[in-house]
Give the backbone structure.
Amino acid sequence: MFDGIISLTIFLPVISAVIILFFLKNKKTIRYFANITTGIVFIFSLLIFLSYDTDLSGFQMIDYFERWIPFEYLRSSYIVGVDGLSAPLVLLTGILGFVSTLASTKVEKRVKEYHIWLLVLISSVFGVFVSLDLLLFFIFFEFELIPMYMLISIWGSGRPKYSAMKFVLFTLFGGALMLIGILSIYMSPDIGTLMMVSLPELGLVGIPELIQYSNLLIPASFVFFLFFIAFSIKLPSWPMHSWLPDAHTDAPTAVSVMLAGVLLKMAGYGLIRINIGFFQNTNGFTIYDVSLYISILAAVSVVYGGIITVRQTDMKRLIAFSSISHMGFVMLGVSAIGQSSMQSSIAGINGAALQMFTHGTITGLAFLMVGYTYERTHTRHIPHLGGLWHKIPIIAVFFFISGFASLGLPMLSGFVSEIMIFLSVYKIWPVATIISAFGVVLAAGYILWMIQRIFFGVKPPDEIFSDDIYEKIRDVKKLDLLPILLLTIPVILVGIWPSFLTDMINLGVEGVIR
Amino acid sequence: MNLNDLKLLSPEIFLSISGLFLLVLSLFKTDVVKIINLSIFSLIITILLVCNLWFGWLFEISTNAGLLDTFATDNFSLFFKLLILLASVITIYGSFHYLIAEKTKYYFGEFISLFFLSIVGMMLLVSSTELITIYVALELSALPIIVLLSIHRTKLGIESGIKFFILSAFSSALLLYGFIYLYGISGSTNLLVIKDSISSMNSLNSYGIIISIVLIISGLSFKMAIVPWQMWIPDVYQGAPTPVAAFLSVASKASAFAVIIRIFYTAFSNENLMVDWSLIFAILAAITMTIGNLFALNQNNIKRLLGYSTIAQAGYILIGLAAIPGSETLDFSGIQGSMYYLAGYLFTNISIFIVVTIIISKTKDETIQGLSGFIKVSTVYSVILVIGLLSLIGMPPTVGFMSKVIIFGFAINSGYPWLALIGVVNSVLAAFYYLRIIRFIVFEEPSNDKLSYVSKLQDSRTVFAGAICSILVLLLGIIPFLVLEMSKKAINFI
């Protein structure tokens, strides 16, 4: 079976990276070419999203090459497809990929390599969300490290080499544990397949069904934790979060947008697809046994992340730490999986999946605005800023929108996903939910305080914030509005009309939970 | 010796004759380029002769075993012969620049004939099925290397030659001692006869067998670079001429792995015995990779670092040997994993070594810092190096990734999940120091004195050899069955 559009979307950025590598020399041409590529990829991802038929549900647009590795000991196939869970994430990747190249106009250093790595990164992230074969999933999951390492190290600021190395080592460690998990599932008797899902129309039986009747080689609880640790490093969840602030702070703007926007979502996607999908009913272990602990971990993440965020004085670092808190909500939604009430479980995981999409757009927008502000002020140190409202009203407005969405103002998208998570998880783990709710209060605190200190008040004296720089500050150009609007439209749209996403996500979540 | 024996030995015979011929030729003809070309030509002919034995183009052979059953050219040995020959030919072709630029050009005849003799020794080694032949072939492969190591007569070179000589003599003694026990127990030196007599023994716990297993592992571990017989590696690599180090790290190691696989899967292939020695291999593998990686963390000399990295890689390869099948399904896939790993490791390591060879011969700077900003000096070499290093880390889509996946899979399958766990944790540890090299190559600014030799650095042969290796590293990672199918045919000797 071959539909083609997904494969095309995955490999188009890589192909154009190769074209840039061999044929293009001029900086301007490279920029145009990269922008056009990601624009086409964005349109493709929109097409994938729109052409997903919600009446049919299940996996659609499948590309299947059987036995990509035709080796009897490793039956791996090339198989990609989208369901309700992954289609919004594909759209998210398309949007943020386009935004990230559009936001790279200020990069002047080694332009050619920069765009090559960025395109390769976009390809590998796409691959993660659409792979239905575990080994393929793992390959894309690991491969994304190489472009990230290069992008942070070469084009970063601050201590880029340290941060990039930290990021790679943390993620590699998680990936290594996940590899053991994958192999031990695959090698177990009666499994012998790497399919992440069952596809009845192709006659493929996936791990979620087979794992129920199999005696795993190593205990299922252990395999669960191998995956769980890998994803909670990537999410990141307390106490494995320490790579994130460094990597974010030192990465260039476009890479921060990609990192916060889609790379973290790979972990949330993995938690739902693999940890929930595989381990609901295995031999001697189910995820229900540990969902209480997951909820506690999530609550700690949310509150700890929030408290740390309040103390930050660097704009970018502040947004980065707020990601820990907000991705904690994803984990809280995941912990809604429980035996007692099916409806709440589904609603909670729906909320988690929606939170991934909304956080992607909101944080992407926030990092973009921080990037624009920093380009103008040359400092990210919040106490050194002030009174910018008059100089850059457009940036300020969109900064406010991202901030308000992030703290959960109704009519903006953050509110929808958070309220979904809270309402459903409260029925299952009330204490953890109540504790996590303080995360929203903290968010209001740090966001509003940051906005107030940056944009309002009076300009600090000359020795702190130079008058020369202040005088030269200009607002965004018209062209810069394109990436801003690309991110703002979903934020507002999901806020006022959430069901265009939730209906689809619901189909995907119902497929994962049996 | 009958006609069939001659056919079986045709590659070895051809190679030793051409080695001696080149030695004589170099007395009359001083043009070193022609001799190098001739030597590459004769290596290619030898590869074709080996392929001929595999596919039977020119003539059919009546039986695999020859020379009174001391010698077998089964697919297993042919696979390893191909690996050894490919490693040699790429090394010589890729180090062309080094060989004509360094002092080697004054005694290239000696160099190449000793090189060939060592290759012949390794080819005999992977084919031999009898203890005495194994010993003789092992010595034949080791003795020329001693001379090759110190051929430049530098202080470090002579030191590394002497170190290699003493330790190799010592390990040969251990190996012989192990063989003596085996002979005493079974009354024969033929591996198949030994297998039968061990199977017919009543008590397998006889101390004799255990002592001989331990001694044989010790003796061969020297060649395989396995802890605790690994100490010589960094010193010898540092002192050796770089092409010889490359040859040593790949061909010599491959031949030692071949012979240990043959001994253990033939003579000691009794099921009860297997459980015992597989645990020994598993423990040795775990220690070897950990020690190799830990010591490499703090290395600044690139040759020493590569030395420690080969120790770590030997640990991964050893996992395949430890992964004996479970009792119900008796297929020997673990070795297949090892063979695939070795094949991938060959191209990866040689691509790195030939680039390092040319850099060091130009800059005389062996530190990692010497590679600073190398991407601006030479993009092609940097890309080759980075692909090789990524493959050593085990990043997709390189061959290093796929071989690690396969080998860890076998480890889990044969009941060693802890070994796979140690393996993956180690690969994270290894990522640290490999990434450090990549960091210097790609991110640092080049120092000024480096830019002066940039024009002299490009050598089309090195680029070609390195590019072929890099392409194969990627290709074997994306379509691994090319080698896996071959290795599957190759393990039919069991």
Observations:
- Chain B touches chain A at residues 333, 336, 390, 395-397, 401-402, 404-406, 408-410, 412-413, 415, 417, 420-421, 424-425, 427-428, 431-432, 435, 439, 442-443, 479-481, 484 (CB under 8 Å).
